[in-house]
Request: fold
Amino acid sequence: MKIGLISVAGQTIDKTLEVPVALAVSTNASIGTSTRVMRLAWFVALLCYAVLLTTFHYASTTVWWIASPALMADFIAAAPFQGRVLLPLIVHAIMRITPWFDVDLLFAAAEVAAWMLLVVVARKALRAFRIETSDLVSGILALTITVPVALHLIVPDLEVHSVLGLDSGVLELGKWQTVPFFRYVYDLPAAVFTLALVLCLARFVQTPGTGWLTAYLGLFALATVNRETTMFLLPAFLAVCWGVLDRRTIATALAAQVIIFVVIQAAIRWLFPGLPNPYASIPGTNYEIHLTDNLWLFTNPLYLLTYLARFGAGLYLPVLLLHRYLDPVLKRTLLWFGIPFLVSTVLFGRLVEHRVVIEIVPLLWLGAVQAISAWSTDQARQSQTHGREPLPLEAQRGPQSRKLLVGE
Reply:
């Protein structure tokens, strides 16, 4: 291997130096080994972190008796919970092959994998939306997505009945109470699928082709097996693609999603109908309506304050304040997916269980990170522009020139 031109007395002399090929190969091998070691260390750290989050989730929550993991895996849980059947199908298949594994252990292992996938997808989303950082920083930044997700899945609900109180003339803290959440096997996968679908949608818009569309439709099918909330992605898909892709492509892709959704949901209802929901309040369905209870929650200003502080870890604030910097894909998705989805949770979900809005939480995180990054880049660009502006005439002439101008 030859390298080098050297300069002597201002003249360039062609002086090639022989470098042993073995040394170059050894250097490349060392770099490759170092990269593999770093990747292994990252994987182990991420695995340990995911195990920790799963442990906290299981320790701080309880299960709803009509939708416990054991009932879900046996396909005898109540509807509509039983219809969210992706993980129960996987766990049931594993138990048929390896019956010595406990059902809760298998669901816990699936959750560990879901936490890891959430961070991996978040890291890829940072690149897709051009949030430029080093590999180390992007990895650390991707880990922060677990904070708002954990706030909605793990941290108990806080009921503040009174901030302060009086006891025998002594001022003391009022009545503060934590209420644990229910744990459902489909919540965390729903968050991962939603983020991954938006990532594929962004890639499809950036580079239209059958590859990204196929990936999107495949994920859409799996996400629909996991939870029926994928229906709210249909208006978002239309809004994101409108004006960017030709109408025939949009119509074909939308029709494919509608067919996938209808076929999968019909098959699930036929194969896994589930038991009747004893708490159903909508005639002819197994769904519950909680509009009145949800509105009553927010009549308590203290609870409203704590709810807003927890919701998306407050990341909706930079999204709203910096909405001009939002990527069009994220802006349209948050509007056309987020608003219909949130309206449905107010009607049919128990907002006191913060997990019911879990699908939108990763999108708020991504929107906040992307908007802040774009705003910071814009501020830096403006600072550089101002720094290159020509100085005033007096400043260019210097102090001595100014003295001459004023006759000193």
Residues 21-60 form the longest helix (40 residues). Strands lie at 2-3, 6-8, 11-13, 17-18, 157-160, 164-167, 170-173, 176-179. The chain has one domain: 36-378. The CA atoms of residues 55 and 295 lie 33 Å apart.
